[in-house]
Amino acid sequence: MRQIQNQACPEWAPERITGLNALPRVRLNFLPTPLAEMKRLSERLGGPRIFIKRDDLTGPALGGNKTRKLEFLLGEALHQGSDTVVTGGALQSNHCRQTAAAAAAAGLECHLALGGEAPDHPTGNLLLDDLLGARVHWCGRYNQGELIPDIDAGLRASGRRPYLIPYGGSNGVGALGFVAAMTEVREQLERLNLKIDCLVTPSSSGGTQAGMAVGADLNGLETKVLGVAIDRGEPGWPPYETEMAVIANQAAARLGLERKYTADHFRVRYDYLGGGYGVVGPLEKEAIRLAASCEGVLLDPVYSGRAMGALIDLIRRREFSRADTVLFWHTGGLPALFQYSRELA
Protein backbone atom coordinates (compact mmCIF):
# COMPACT_ATOMS: atom_id res chain seq x y z
CA MET A 1 0.00 0.00 0.00
CA ARG A 2 2.93 2.31 -0.65
CA GLN A 3 1.19 3.77 -3.67
CA ILE A 4 0.54 7.52 -3.83
CA GLN A 5 -2.78 8.32 -5.43
CA ASN A 6 -3.70 11.74 -6.72
CA GLN A 7 -6.77 10.61 -8.65
CA ALA A 8 -10.21 11.07 -7.19
CA CYS A 9 -12.28 8.12 -6.08
CA PRO A 10 -15.32 8.55 -8.40
CA GLU A 11 -18.04 7.66 -5.88
CA TRP A 12 -17.36 10.39 -3.36
CA ALA A 13 -14.27 12.42 -4.28
CA PRO A 14 -14.45 16.22 -3.80
CA GLU A 15 -14.99 17.18 -7.42
CA ARG A 16 -15.71 20.79 -6.49
CA ILE A 17 -12.28 21.15 -4.91
CA THR A 18 -9.92 20.78 -7.84
CA GLY A 19 -6.83 21.66 -5.82
CA LEU A 20 -7.43 18.82 -3.37
CA ASN A 21 -7.14 16.11 -6.02
CA ALA A 22 -3.73 17.37 -7.13
CA LEU A 23 -2.12 16.78 -3.72
CA PRO A 24 -0.20 13.60 -2.77
CA ARG A 25 -2.39 11.12 -0.93
CA VAL A 26 -2.21 7.53 0.28
CA ARG A 27 -5.56 5.72 0.24
CA LEU A 28 -5.85 4.09 3.66
CA ASN A 29 -9.54 4.21 4.56
CA PHE A 30 -12.74 2.41 3.64
CA LEU A 31 -14.82 5.38 2.51
CA PRO A 32 -17.42 6.67 2.72
CA THR A 33 -18.01 5.79 6.34
CA PRO A 34 -21.69 5.21 7.19
CA LEU A 35 -24.04 8.02 8.12
CA ALA A 36 -26.84 6.49 10.19
CA GLU A 37 -29.82 7.70 12.19
CA MET A 38 -29.92 7.10 15.97
CA LYS A 39 -33.69 6.77 16.24
CA ARG A 40 -33.85 5.01 19.60
CA LEU A 41 -31.50 7.46 21.28
CA SER A 42 -33.48 10.38 19.91
CA GLU A 43 -36.72 8.86 21.22
CA ARG A 44 -35.11 8.25 24.60
CA LEU A 45 -34.08 11.92 24.82
CA GLY A 46 -37.28 13.35 23.35
CA GLY A 47 -35.60 14.75 20.23
CA PRO A 48 -33.98 16.19 18.18
CA ARG A 49 -33.39 13.90 15.22
CA ILE A 50 -29.83 12.53 15.63
CA PHE A 51 -27.54 11.10 12.98
CA ILE A 52 -24.06 9.68 13.52
CA LYS A 53 -21.05 9.73 11.19
CA ARG A 54 -19.22 6.45 11.83
CA ASP A 55 -15.54 7.36 11.58
CA ASP A 56 -14.89 4.58 14.06
CA LEU A 57 -15.22 2.45 10.91
CA THR A 58 -12.56 4.08 8.72
CA GLY A 59 -10.65 0.80 8.80
CA PRO A 60 -6.97 0.73 9.82
CA ALA A 61 -6.30 -0.75 13.29
CA LEU A 62 -9.89 -0.45 14.59
CA GLY A 63 -10.54 2.85 12.82
CA GLY A 64 -10.78 6.46 13.85
CA ASN A 65 -10.85 9.96 12.41
CA LYS A 66 -7.07 10.48 12.35
CA THR A 67 -6.55 8.21 9.37
CA ARG A 68 -8.37 10.78 7.24
CA LYS A 69 -5.58 13.23 8.09
CA LEU A 70 -2.93 10.58 7.63
CA GLU A 71 -3.90 9.96 4.01
CA PHE A 72 -2.53 13.42 3.18
CA LEU A 73 0.27 13.49 5.75
CA LEU A 74 1.74 10.20 4.59
CA GLY A 75 1.14 11.18 0.99
CA GLU A 76 3.37 14.19 1.55
CA ALA A 77 5.91 12.06 3.45
CA LEU A 78 6.27 9.64 0.53
CA HIS A 79 6.30 12.49 -1.97
CA GLN A 80 9.26 14.00 -0.10
CA GLY A 81 11.13 10.69 -0.07
CA SER A 82 10.82 10.04 3.67
CA ASP A 83 11.33 6.54 5.03
CA THR A 84 10.19 7.18 8.61
CA VAL A 85 7.41 9.05 10.38
CA VAL A 86 7.61 10.51 13.87
CA THR A 87 4.69 11.69 15.99
CA GLY A 88 3.69 11.81 19.64
CA GLY A 89 0.94 11.88 22.21
CA ALA A 90 -0.31 10.45 25.47
CA LEU A 91 0.33 6.85 26.45
CA GLN A 92 -3.07 5.72 25.10
CA SER A 93 -3.04 8.06 22.08
CA ASN A 94 -5.52 7.13 19.35
CA HIS A 95 -3.59 9.31 16.92
CA CYS A 96 -0.36 7.42 17.58
CA ARG A 97 -2.07 4.03 17.16
CA GLN A 98 -3.56 5.12 13.84
CA THR A 99 -0.24 6.60 12.70
CA ALA A 100 1.47 3.29 13.45
CA ALA A 101 -1.16 1.45 11.39
CA ALA A 102 -0.96 3.91 8.50
CA ALA A 103 2.85 3.78 8.49
CA ALA A 104 2.79 -0.02 8.41
CA ALA A 105 0.37 0.03 5.48
CA ALA A 106 2.52 2.56 3.61
CA GLY A 107 5.82 0.79 4.28
CA LEU A 108 7.25 3.46 6.55
CA GLU A 109 9.06 3.05 9.86
CA CYS A 110 7.15 4.65 12.76
CA HIS A 111 8.54 6.27 15.91
CA LEU A 112 6.19 7.40 18.71
CA ALA A 113 7.02 9.91 21.46
CA LEU A 114 4.66 8.80 24.23
CA GLY A 115 4.14 10.44 27.60
CA GLY A 116 4.67 8.41 30.76
CA GLU A 117 6.78 5.34 31.46
CA ALA A 118 6.69 1.86 29.98
CA PRO A 119 4.04 -0.24 31.81
CA ASP A 120 4.61 -3.84 32.79
CA HIS A 121 1.73 -5.03 30.62
CA PRO A 122 0.69 -2.88 27.61
CA THR A 123 -3.04 -2.70 26.98
CA GLY A 124 -5.41 -0.78 24.71
CA ASN A 125 -3.78 1.44 22.11
CA LEU A 126 -0.32 0.78 23.51
CA LEU A 127 -0.65 -2.94 22.84
CA LEU A 128 -1.70 -2.18 19.27
CA ASP A 129 1.27 0.20 18.82
CA ASP A 130 3.53 -2.73 19.62
CA LEU A 131 1.72 -5.17 17.33
CA LEU A 132 1.91 -2.62 14.51
CA GLY A 133 5.68 -2.41 14.82
CA ALA A 134 6.02 1.14 16.13
CA ARG A 135 9.14 2.08 18.09
CA VAL A 136 8.17 3.85 21.30
CA HIS A 137 10.25 6.59 22.95
CA TRP A 138 9.08 7.15 26.53
CA CYS A 139 8.94 10.86 27.37
CA GLY A 140 7.84 11.07 31.01
CA ARG A 141 5.82 14.21 31.66
CA TYR A 142 5.89 15.25 27.99
CA ASN A 143 2.74 13.84 26.42
CA GLN A 144 2.08 16.14 23.47
CA GLY A 145 5.06 15.32 21.29
CA GLU A 146 7.37 17.90 22.83
CA LEU A 147 10.42 15.65 22.32
CA ILE A 148 9.77 14.95 18.64
CA PRO A 149 12.62 17.31 17.56
CA ASP A 150 15.11 15.33 19.67
CA ILE A 151 13.97 12.05 18.12
CA ASP A 152 14.13 13.63 14.67
CA ALA A 153 17.73 14.72 15.24
CA GLY A 154 18.77 11.25 16.34
CA LEU A 155 17.14 9.60 13.35
CA ARG A 156 18.76 11.99 10.91
CA ALA A 157 22.14 11.38 12.53
CA SER A 158 21.65 7.65 11.90
CA GLY A 159 20.86 8.22 8.22
CA ARG A 160 17.05 8.03 8.30
CA ARG A 161 14.80 10.47 6.44
CA PRO A 162 12.02 11.23 8.95
CA TYR A 163 8.79 13.10 8.31
CA LEU A 164 7.39 14.83 11.39
CA ILE A 165 3.66 14.63 12.12
CA PRO A 166 2.44 17.09 14.76
CA TYR A 167 0.36 16.22 17.81
CA GLY A 168 -3.00 14.92 16.59
CA GLY A 169 -1.90 15.25 12.97
CA SER A 170 -3.26 18.78 13.22
CA ASN A 171 -1.76 21.12 10.65
CA GLY A 172 -2.80 22.39 7.25
CA VAL A 173 -1.91 19.12 5.52
CA GLY A 174 -3.76 16.91 8.01
CA ALA A 175 -6.84 19.15 7.95
CA LEU A 176 -7.25 18.40 4.24
CA GLY A 177 -8.60 15.01 5.26
CA PHE A 178 -11.63 16.75 6.75
CA VAL A 179 -12.00 19.13 3.85
CA ALA A 180 -12.52 15.99 1.78
CA ALA A 181 -14.74 14.48 4.50
CA MET A 182 -17.22 17.34 4.24
CA THR A 183 -17.69 16.60 0.55
CA GLU A 184 -18.37 13.00 1.52
CA VAL A 185 -21.00 14.21 4.01
CA ARG A 186 -22.56 16.61 1.50
CA GLU A 187 -23.05 13.80 -0.98
CA GLN A 188 -24.56 11.53 1.67
CA LEU A 189 -26.96 14.27 2.80
CA GLU A 190 -28.00 14.96 -0.78
CA ARG A 191 -28.82 11.28 -1.32
CA LEU A 192 -30.91 11.31 1.85
CA ASN A 193 -32.49 14.67 1.01
CA LEU A 194 -31.43 15.73 4.49
CA LYS A 195 -30.41 19.07 5.99
CA ILE A 196 -28.32 19.15 9.17
CA ASP A 197 -28.73 22.07 11.56
CA CYS A 198 -25.63 21.34 13.66
CA LEU A 199 -22.63 19.03 13.48
CA VAL A 200 -21.17 18.09 16.88
CA THR A 201 -17.59 16.80 17.16
CA PRO A 202 -14.95 16.33 19.86
CA SER A 203 -12.21 18.96 19.62
CA SER A 204 -8.69 18.56 20.92
CA SER A 205 -5.73 19.36 18.67
CA GLY A 206 -8.02 21.33 16.32
CA GLY A 207 -7.29 19.85 12.90
CA THR A 208 -10.58 17.99 12.56
CA GLN A 209 -12.80 21.01 13.23
CA ALA A 210 -10.57 23.32 11.19
CA GLY A 211 -10.83 21.05 8.17
CA MET A 212 -14.58 20.74 8.66
CA ALA A 213 -14.93 24.53 8.54
CA VAL A 214 -13.02 24.83 5.26
CA GLY A 215 -14.83 21.84 3.79
CA ALA A 216 -18.26 23.15 4.81
CA ASP A 217 -17.54 26.47 3.11
CA LEU A 218 -16.27 24.88 -0.09
CA ASN A 219 -19.30 22.59 -0.28
CA GLY A 220 -21.85 25.27 0.47
CA LEU A 221 -22.98 23.59 3.69
CA GLU A 222 -24.68 26.00 6.06
CA THR A 223 -24.45 23.51 8.92
CA LYS A 224 -23.07 24.92 12.17
CA VAL A 225 -20.04 23.01 13.45
CA LEU A 226 -19.87 22.78 17.24
CA GLY A 227 -16.73 21.45 18.89
CA VAL A 228 -16.76 19.98 22.39
CA ALA A 229 -13.44 20.69 24.11
CA ILE A 230 -11.75 17.56 25.43
CA ASP A 231 -8.98 19.41 27.26
CA ARG A 232 -7.39 22.88 26.99
CA GLY A 233 -9.25 24.34 29.94
CA GLU A 234 -6.12 25.20 31.91
CA PRO A 235 -5.26 28.88 32.55
CA GLY A 236 -2.67 30.23 30.14
CA TRP A 237 -3.37 27.77 27.34
CA PRO A 238 -4.40 29.39 24.03
CA PRO A 239 -8.04 28.76 23.12
CA TYR A 240 -8.80 26.15 20.50
CA GLU A 241 -10.39 28.72 18.22
CA THR A 242 -7.11 30.58 17.71
CA GLU A 243 -5.24 27.44 16.69
CA MET A 244 -8.11 26.27 14.48
CA ALA A 245 -7.94 29.54 12.54
CA VAL A 246 -4.22 29.01 11.91
CA ILE A 247 -4.78 25.43 10.73
CA ALA A 248 -7.76 26.40 8.56
CA ASN A 249 -5.72 29.13 6.88
CA GLN A 250 -2.89 26.68 6.24
CA ALA A 251 -5.33 24.23 4.62
CA ALA A 252 -6.94 26.97 2.55
CA ALA A 253 -3.51 28.10 1.34
CA ARG A 254 -2.68 24.53 0.29
CA LEU A 255 -5.79 24.61 -1.88
CA GLY A 256 -4.98 28.03 -3.34
CA LEU A 257 -7.96 29.67 -1.64
CA GLU A 258 -7.98 33.31 -0.66
CA ARG A 259 -10.46 33.00 2.20
CA LYS A 260 -9.06 33.94 5.62
CA TYR A 261 -10.31 32.42 8.89
CA THR A 262 -10.28 34.00 12.32
CA ALA A 263 -11.08 32.61 15.76
CA ASP A 264 -14.63 33.97 15.38
CA HIS A 265 -15.35 31.38 12.70
CA PHE A 266 -15.28 28.54 15.26
CA ARG A 267 -17.65 27.48 18.04
CA VAL A 268 -16.31 25.43 20.95
CA ARG A 269 -17.98 24.48 24.24
CA TYR A 270 -15.58 24.38 27.18
CA ASP A 271 -18.13 23.53 29.87
CA TYR A 272 -17.81 19.73 29.64
CA LEU A 273 -14.17 19.27 30.65
CA GLY A 274 -15.14 17.44 33.82
CA GLY A 275 -12.11 16.11 35.68
CA GLY A 276 -9.80 16.89 32.76
CA TYR A 277 -8.28 15.03 29.84
CA GLY A 278 -8.78 11.28 30.03
CA VAL A 279 -10.78 11.42 33.27
CA VAL A 280 -14.04 9.46 32.97
CA GLY A 281 -16.91 10.87 35.01
CA PRO A 282 -20.71 10.50 35.14
CA LEU A 283 -21.15 12.45 31.88
CA GLU A 284 -19.01 10.06 29.86
CA LYS A 285 -20.31 6.92 31.59
CA GLU A 286 -23.94 7.73 30.88
CA ALA A 287 -23.25 8.67 27.26
CA ILE A 288 -21.33 5.45 26.60
CA ARG A 289 -24.05 3.30 28.17
CA LEU A 290 -26.91 5.12 26.42
CA ALA A 291 -25.30 4.86 22.97
CA ALA A 292 -24.51 1.18 23.58
CA SER A 293 -27.88 0.17 25.03
CA CYS A 294 -30.03 2.24 22.66
CA GLU A 295 -28.10 1.86 19.41
CA GLY A 296 -25.46 -0.85 19.81
CA VAL A 297 -22.83 1.83 19.16
CA LEU A 298 -19.66 1.89 21.25
CA LEU A 299 -18.12 5.26 22.11
CA ASP A 300 -14.66 5.80 23.51
CA PRO A 301 -14.21 7.21 27.05
CA VAL A 302 -11.96 10.18 26.19
CA TYR A 303 -13.32 11.82 23.03
CA SER A 304 -16.61 10.61 21.57
CA GLY A 305 -17.95 9.68 25.03
CA ARG A 306 -17.40 13.19 26.32
CA ALA A 307 -18.75 14.84 23.17
CA MET A 308 -21.87 12.66 23.19
CA GLY A 309 -22.32 13.42 26.88
CA ALA A 310 -22.25 17.11 26.01
CA LEU A 311 -24.81 16.62 23.23
CA ILE A 312 -27.13 14.72 25.57
CA ASP A 313 -26.89 17.49 28.15
CA LEU A 314 -27.50 20.22 25.54
CA ILE A 315 -30.62 18.36 24.39
CA ARG A 316 -31.91 18.09 27.95
CA ARG A 317 -31.27 21.78 28.45
CA ARG A 318 -33.30 22.40 25.27
CA GLU A 319 -30.49 24.07 23.38
CA PHE A 320 -31.72 21.85 20.54
CA SER A 321 -35.41 21.61 19.71
CA ARG A 322 -37.41 18.61 18.55
CA ALA A 323 -37.45 20.16 15.06
CA ASP A 324 -33.63 20.21 14.79
CA THR A 325 -31.48 17.63 13.07
CA VAL A 326 -28.03 17.01 14.56
CA LEU A 327 -25.08 15.08 13.15
CA PHE A 328 -22.71 13.58 15.71
CA TRP A 329 -19.21 12.76 14.43
CA HIS A 330 -17.88 9.56 16.00
CA THR A 331 -14.09 9.97 15.97
CA GLY A 332 -13.27 6.41 17.05
CA GLY A 333 -10.86 5.51 19.85
CA LEU A 334 -12.50 2.23 20.85
CA PRO A 335 -9.33 0.46 22.11
CA ALA A 336 -9.33 2.86 25.07
CA LEU A 337 -12.54 1.25 26.36
CA PHE A 338 -10.52 -1.70 27.62
CA GLN A 339 -8.01 0.57 29.36
CA TYR A 340 -10.92 2.15 31.29
CA SER A 341 -12.68 -1.08 32.22
CA ARG A 342 -12.63 -0.34 35.98
CA GLU A 343 -14.13 3.14 35.55
CA LEU A 344 -16.86 1.89 33.22
CA ALA A 345 -17.84 -1.35 34.95
Profile the largest sheet.
6 strands, mixed
- β-strand percent reads 5-15%
Distance between the termini: 39 Å
Unreliable spans:
1-16
Please tell me how large the radius of gyration is: 19 Å
Strand order of the largest sheet: 1-2-10-7-8-9
Number of strands: 10
Average pLDDT, rounded to a whole number, is 92
Please report the number of helical segments: 12
Class by alpha and beta content: alpha/beta
Cα shape: globular
The percentage helix is: 25-40%
- The ordered H/E elements are EHEHEHEHEHEHEHEHEHHEHH
How would you sum up this structure, described in words?
- The chain is an alpha/beta fold.
- The protein contains 12 helices and 10 strands.
- The strands form 2 sheets. Strands 1-2-10-7-8-9 form a 6-stranded mixed sheet, sandwiched between helices.
- Strand 7, helix 7 (207-218) and strand 8 (224-229) form a beta-alpha-beta unit.
Which descriptors would you attach to this protein?
345 residues, alpha/beta, six-stranded mixed sheet, four-stranded parallel sheet, 12 helices
Task: Please give a quick description of this structure.
This protein is of the alpha/beta class.
Write the SSE topology.
Layout: E1 35-37, H1 39-45, E2 49-54, H2 66-79, E3 84-89, H3 94-106, E4 109-114, H4 124-131, E5 135-138, H5 148-157, E6 162-164, H6 172-192, E7 198-203, H7 207-218, E8 224-229, H8 240-254, E9 267-269, H9 282-295, H10 304-316, E10 325-330, H11 336-339, H12 341-344
Parallel strand pairs: 2-10, 3-4, 3-6, 4-5, 7-8, 7-10, 8-9
Antiparallel strand pairs: 1-2
